[in-house]
Each structure stands twice: as structure tokens, then as C-alpha cells.
Amino acid sequence: DPVRSIPIIEQIERMLKPLEQDEFIRQELEEFHAAEKAQQEKAEKEEIESVVEQKPEKVHVQIDTGSAELEVTDIPEIKLPFLPVEIAGHIVEDVNELERCYNNSCYRSAVILCGRILETALHRKYFEVTGNDILETNPGVGLGKLIAKLNEHDVSFDPGLMNQVHLVNNVRIGSVHVKKDLYRPNQNQTQAIILYTLDALHKMFSK
Known about the structure:
By secondary structure, the chain is an all-alpha fold. It contains 7 helices and no strands. It has 2 domains: about 1-55; about 85-205, Up-down Bundle (Four Helix Bundle (Hemerythrin (Met), subunit A)), CATH 1.20.120.
């Protein structure tokens, strides 16, 4: 009976109205949250851009192409050479940490990292020449012994490069090992060691 159905239909419509209102409110809330999120992302982007403008010398890393390039704040005109992809990530990470140590006046730590960077580079050179990973056969080998082993395989380095490596290694040893008079490199000395280290990398890997 259509007449009897009218009250039922009206009742159903009354029941559906709150659901329609809930759906409208839900859509309104979703739109509000989306707008709020977009505004927050915009604010964060503007804040990042303002920081970059204040400090333009930032780290720039390229690893996917097998190379790395890095500019270090407060250490003028320092860039990494193109590095083998196998060690690029490790060296870039160490240089990033080196930058933090230097800028926070942790000069002994910076010098120690210089030695680590050279070790990574020389280990790679040894592998390229011999096909053997010396870290597996002799994990505790130092820079001096590593250079001697490379010489055994007729790998000759520029005398200036060897002087740089030995200088960095000696300063690193003085910073690491316990001695009566603790070695404390100052800012100028540390900057020189960093420059020596990066120059050594350029001499080893520049094409």
C-alpha cells in the first residue's frame, strides 16, 4: 500500500540525514587536514630555504654515478675528486663527519678521520692492483705497511704524495696513542692536515 509506505520512507530519510551530515563533516575535516598539511609543508620548505640562503656552502654528494663532490664549510675550496663507487660512500660519510669535527673545534678527531680517509683510499688502491682485500687477510695493517706492500707490487707514488701520507699518518698517531705529552693540533694545523689529505686523494684518483 503506497500510502502506508510514506511514513516508512520518511522514517528512513530521517535516519539517513545524520549519516549524510557525518559524511559531509568527514569530507570537511579531510579538506581541512589536507590544507593544514600543505601549509605546514610550505612553511617547512620556506624555513629550509632561508637556512640555505644564510649558509650557502652546503654538502653536495653524488654517489649513484660513482663519484663524489663535497664542499666543506669554513675549509676553503675543498672538493673530493671522482672516487671509485666502492669507496665513495664511505669517504663522503667520513668527510661529512670531518666537517662537523672541524667546525666544532674537535681537531684531534678531525686529524684521526684524515688518517681513516687515507686508509680507505689506499686499501682500494691495493685491491685494484692485487685483486685481494687486505682488510680480510691483514685487518690491522697501518698506513706505512700498506704503502710498503703497494711498493712490493711495483706501485710507485709521487714522492710528494708519500710525504703527505706519512705526515698525516704521523700526526694521526700522535693524536691517537697515549704519550707523555698529548698532541693537540690547533685550527691551522688541522686545516693543513685536511688540505694534505684531500690533495692526496686527488693525486691518487684524479683521471
